[in-house]
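Researcher: For the annotation table, I need structure tokens for tRNA pseudouridine synthase. Please keep the output clean. Sequence:
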Amino acid sequence: MGAGSVRARYLVYFQYLGTDFNGVAAVRGVQRAVGVQNYLEEAAERLNSVVPVKFTISSRTDAGVHALSNAAHLDIQRRSDLPPFSPEVLTEALNTHLKHPAIRVLQAFRVPSHFHARHAAISRTYLYRLATGCHRPDRLPVFEQNRCWALQADCLDVAAMQEAAQHLLGTHDFSAFQSAGSPATSPVRTLRQASVSPDPASPFVLPEESRQLRFWSLEFESQSFLYKQVRRMTAVLVAVGLGALMPAQVKAILKSRDPLGKHQSRVAPAHGLFLKSVLYEGIGPTSMQPPCMPSETQYRSHR
């Protein structure tokens, strides 16, 4: 650290449509694939930090997965004659320099130097969107493509799905719903919420189509999840909704701890999944009002 300079740590919330990205994590090297983190760090380069700014992501999402609100911490060390950025100016500056329209920084907060965005999270909630009555891919409105899993079935047995979801609640060994490559040291997780509910009619569906197309949401909340756990649980609950599994079989699958079984080895498509929220004790937004996009002139006045 330079003489007299101060390093400030921030927690930032950001959102993105994951369609164009190889996940949220940065892709290093010469590959053509790129992650959301690459764009965030590229924008942060314009902040003139004494040391390079690196984002530590709270929740890693795969290629094609979206986030209504993900989080990360970063350190910014300005010259000794400059004060730390205010959270509001940091938010404006990052949005000013972001070069991809599918990423937006929502809010920033100053946090202690020991704060860690991944380890300090006390809750993560994922939302999975389904559409029924989509007999052909071209029946789905273009505005909903890559934002839900379109099922050919006309309906789902939602009551059976809700019953099956109850078997997943609580503290269990979720090995049956874990994909290979998970860095987790333990497969035990505590699932606090697993719900299935109808979505309001999509504003992008024409009136003459709304009788066939219906939308549904699955929500899962835990402190943390195993690799692809949410998409595997979703696939099993959809199998229940389609009548391919009975609700009681979900309990048996969970107890089997076998990730290679016929039903639990299926993974729901990435494009229907959204990271909805990441929560911290005593830190975080009280409201997520969309910020006005700042101008370059506004940012320069604070440098």
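Researcher: And a one-line annotation?
Model: The first strand starts at residue 7 and ends at 16.
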